[in-house]
Design brief:
Radius of gyration: 27 Å
Mean pLDDT: 85
Order of helices and strands: HHHHHHHHHHHHHHH
Helix content: 55-70%
Largest sheet: none
Shape: flat
Structural class: mainly alpha
């Protein structure tokens, strides 16, 4: 046998071909149930409606009659010449940048405090009564978004709770101040409400991620003399980078919609359309004006902006060092 192998010329042996998997009943049913069925549902309920929206965006469909005429890209031309829609697009972009940034910074800070921000001696642990802070901070997320919007709309009312509290501490200049009716404060007040509603959930998400980091890593950093800030930037953030990326994408997608919060706080779009977002303008165009073709074009633009946002987040994460270590090898 050894002699036969020795006499075999290099390269004369054929590469072993991979065996074909037999189409057994178990294999076929597994592929149908766990691959075919989800793929069919995705195509029917996600891809097909999007393709329909693209088609409707090329028509003058009113939404209430079967008649429609294909007009090409005329809806898109009108869209990008519409100052109101461009204002709404700018507001969405602002929300997609500011809301995830503020929410993640606050959530990450709170998560660090309740997990590894405790005493600088002894075992690694969070602040005292950290479980209580964790539960309380999660309460706003449990409240439905529409309820949150209505609640804060009453708080921001010129005769509401906020101005009353500010008056009690001597800030009389805020008496009857219209927080949502002033162009300078409407967007800031709205962003605060959105952040207030989501920071607790993402804090819990980051707490779970930080709990997955070995305590020995933090103990080694403490022995080396690293402070809390250095530990957070050198250990915590790099090790939970994927969780932060996921949170940023989800928050950005939510901010690019934000219909419920905006409609509850400022259904008219705010003073001078300062809080108007694309989803609000889409709703107005479709159900207020009966221009479903134009509204479909707005939906397509919103979907494209969302995809671009997600792609940018992935790209920035990869450029700044988020690439998997195995992929670098």
């Amino acid at each position: 046998m050894d002699t036969a192998l020795a006499n075999t010329k290099p390269g004369s042996r054929k590469a072993a071909r991979p065996r074909k998997r037999k189409l057994t009943f178990d294999y076929v049913t597994f592929m149908v149930v766990f691959l075919g069925l989800p793929l069919a549902i995705f195509l029917i309920f996600v891809i097909w409606p999007f393709l329909q929206a693209v088609f409707y965006s090329l028509t003058d469909w009113s939404g209430f009659t079967p008649e429609m005429q294909v007009i090409g890209i005329e809806n898109y031309i009108r869209l990008f010449n519409d100052d109101i829609f461009m204002t709404a697009l700018g507001n969405n972009v602002l929300l997609a940048i500011v809301v995830p940034l503020i929410t993640i910074v606050l959530a990450l800070t709170l998560a660090t405090m309740v997990t590894v921000g405790g005493p600088s001696h002894g075992p690694i642990r969070g602040l005292r009564n950290s479980s209580f802070y964790r539960v309380v901070s999660f309460f706003p997320y449990v409240i439905p978004a529409i309820v949150t919007g209505i609640l804060w709309g009453q708080i921001y009312n010129p005769a509401g709770l906020l101005n009353g509290l500010l008056g009690l501490i001597g800030l009389d200049m805020f008496e009857s101040f219209p927080w949502l009716g002033n162009e300078r404060t409407a967007m800031g007040a709205t962003i605060f409400v959105i952040v207030w509603g989501f920071v607790g959930f993402y804090m819990v998400l980051f707490v779970a991620a930080i709990k997955g980091v070995p305590a020995e890593t933090y103990e080694a950093a403490r022995i080396d003399g690293a402070g809390r800030a250095r530990t957070a930037f050198s250990i915590t953030i790099p090790l939970i980078r994927d969780n932060i990326q996921t949170a940023y994408i989800y928050l950005g997608i939510m901010a690019l919609d934000a219909f419920v919060y905006m409609q509850a706080l400022n259904p008219g779009g705010g003073p001078n359309n300062s809080t108007l977002v694309m989803s609000q303008q889409l709703f107005r165009t479709a159900f207020g004006k009966g221009e479903f073709g134009q509204a479909s074009a707005m939906g397509v633009v919103l979907a494209i902006v969302t995809l671009i946002f997600a792609a940018l987040v992935f790209t920035v994460n990869r450029i700044t060092g988020g690439k998997d270590e195995k992929g670098r090898a």
